[in-house]
Specification:
about 140 residues; mainly alpha; about 0% strand; elongated
């Protein structure tokens, strides 16, 4: 896959992850949304979000989508963009991706606003990194 295609795919996945996260999670506690509480748009968004969650909760895979898919999309998009920008050896790329994934996930143990630490996420990150090592 060419570098431009990897970057485009990575950005599309990142945008989808942001939209999905915003639709399924309470973003009021995130620092970036801290000043939006009084905004009319934020009220409309919260109404849309509660409606979307009410519908999506009926799906059998809702828990996976809410708790893991956003993290997987983030890591996959980061991996695509990283591999497009940095042309390093596959083993180095694997090591960097695993290191950043671990740093990201373990930071959630200390900073609650970043998310919830989860071993399953680490295993999924490792699987994605292995795919990038093999391909």
């Amino acid at each position: 896959m060419r570098s431009q295609n990897k970057i485009c795919a990575g950005l599309i996945l990142m945008i989808f992850a942001i939209i999905l996260y915003s639709a399924l999670h309470n973003v009021e506690n995130l620092y970036i949304f801290h000043n939006f509480g009084e905004n009319l748009f934020f009220g409309i968004y919260k109404n849309f979000q509660s409606h979307a969650i009410r519908i999506l909760k009926r799906l059998p895979f809702f828990s996976f989508v809410k708790n893991h898919l956003v993290d997987l999309l983030w890591f996959l998009s980061f991996s695509l963009i990283f591999s497009a920008i940095f042309s390093v050896a596959k083993k180095t790329r694997f090591a960097v991706l695993i290191l950043l994934a671990c740093l990201s996930e373990f930071s959630q143990l200390f900073y609650e606003n970043l998310g919830t630490f989860d071993i399953l996420d680490l295993l999924c990150y490792f699987s994605i990194a292995v795919v990038f090592l093999v391909v």
